[in-house]
Amino acid sequence: MRRQRNLAPMIYRPWGVPTSLGSRIPLASLIQTLAVAEHLNFRHAANALGVSVSSVSTRVKTLEEDLGILLFERHARGVRLTEAGRRFVEQVSVGVDQLDHAVKTASMAASGECGHLRLGIHALIPRSFLAKLIAQYRDAHPGIEVEITESTARDALTQLRSDRLNLAFIAGPAELPDFHSRRIWTEPLVAVLPERHPLAKQSAVTWPDLVGETFLVRHGSTGPQAYDHIILRLAGCLPPPSIQRFDVGRGTLLSMVEQGFGITIVGAATALLPTTGLVFLPFADEPEPVSFSAIWSPFTRSPAIRNMLVLAGKLGRICDSAPGDIQHEPRDRPQ
Q1: Angle, helices 83-110/27-39, rounded to nearest 10 degrees
Q2: C-alpha to C-alpha distance for 221 and 168, rounded to whole angstroms
Q3: Cα–Cα dist 330/314, whole Å
Q4: CATH 3.40.190.10 intervals, the chain
Q5: Domain 116-186+290-328 has CATH 3.40.50.2000
């Protein structure tokens, strides 16, 4: 009876009176209350939390007084939850779990271990540098959902500006005033000819060899850059270059070359695709390989982007030590 009389002011506190308890109740009080509810014993709860029994008892009592609710009925062997206490503990338990999840999720997002990474690419060719980079990134960061969009460089820039992409890999130089950029890898430029072409038996070709040829390029992917490059290299040559543009995929364009519609130029990674009836010949007079760069908004502070660029640098150094035709540009950790 004495206990009921002492708690009467709490039990009969008017309901519905606006309070600011949510901002005043310490998280430690809630956690210790949950521990008591789990063990139904103040001493066992204190031992589990590594704190004193008096600390647990005081915090629970203060919480009950603040709430105006009796959460536990005390007895000689321990405690048991009241009906109000059971309902309170159920709700608090959910809230604490959500808070714990929020803290962990925020920590993972801050370190680039969860979230989304929307990539713009020119192509994803099996066994190419970019394919290996994305595969290793997904293995290293399984909590990141990688979304991939294939487009031209111009479309990728538009999507970056509208925040529909986080990071894009494009062919050619990427020194743009409103973007950060980093050259990631390079590939030799090669000409693609049908096997029956008069030049197919050569080990390499030069641009003068290709004067008078019909070039095929795509509207999408790296087609615009290929078009501009052909114009640049054959400027002033007679007859002027014949360039036909098609709204087709990569495989269809290569099939058109095999069937004799014309020839095309691609990065060396395209030669990794399974093809028949084609030859891929390097240019003997191309002054430098084709560079591929990563670009992203200067307003983006994404750990996921940072992790991708760091991995690209590491993968580039590994690939540099192995024989092959594709070179890579290692870079230090981005700031």
Answers
A1: 120
A2: 12
A3: 7
A4: 116-186+290-328, 189-282
A5: no
CB atoms closer than 10 angstroms to residue 3: 10
Name the DSSP letter for residue 283. Answer: B
CATH of 189-282, one of 3.40.50.10540, 3.30.530.20, 3.30.70.60, 3.40.190.10: 3.40.190.10
- pLDDT for 105: 67
Is this prediction's pTM over 0.70? no
Query: 219: closest CA among 154, 270, 275?
Result: 154
The structure tokens listed for 315 are: 């993968």
Q: How far apart are CA 43 and CA 198, in angstroms?
A: 91
Cβ–Cβ under 8 Å, residues 168 and 120: yes
> For tokens 């206990």, what's the residue?
3
| Pairing verdict, β 180-187 and 327-328 | antiparallel
H or E stretch at 314: helix 303-320
Are 113 and 58 contacting, i.e. CB atoms less than 8 angstroms apart? no
pLDDT 10s digits, 32-43: 999 999 999 999
CATH 1.10.10.10 fits 2-110, yes or no: yes
Q: Distance between CA 308 and CA 127 in Å, rounded?
A: 18
Would you call 184 helix, strand, or coil by DSSP? strand
The confidence score (pLDDT) of residue 104 equals 67
pLDDT digits (tens, 9 = 90+) for 182-234: 999 999 999 999 999 999 999 999 999 999 999 999 998 899 999 999 999 99
Residue 254, amino acid: L
Dmax over Cα atoms in the chain, in whole Å? 110
Among the ranges given (186-190, 213-217, 291-295, 319-323), the one the predictor scored with the smallest mean pLDDT: 319-323
